[in-house]
Amino acid sequence: MLSKFPGHRSGIVALYNMDEDFLGLCEDNLTSIEAMEKRRKDLIKDREMERGYLQLNRDLEKEILNFLGKKC
After folding, report:
1. Residue ranges per domain, the chain?
2. Tens-digit pLDDT profile for residues 54-72
3. Distance from chain centroid for Cα 64
4. Helices in 1-72 by DSSP H: which ranges?
5. Contacts of residue 11, Cβ cutoff 8 Å, sequence gap at least 6
6. Could you tell me what percent of the chain has a pLDDT over 70?
């Protein structure tokens, strides 16, 4: 929060220490940021896996065509 709103440092610190609702908002915000970052990393992994499967599919299709060319 402090880096996101540097001009409000003293207010953030005061509210964080005195107001449970504000503390809850800060915690929810952090949880949201962490979830987005995890999802972003998962999406990157998913894209890499998808590319791998696409390449595997192309390779298998080539092998099938080669097999058909030899047997048909």
Report:
1. 6-71
2. 999 999 999 988 888 887 6
3. 36
4. 9-18, 20-71
5. none
6. 99
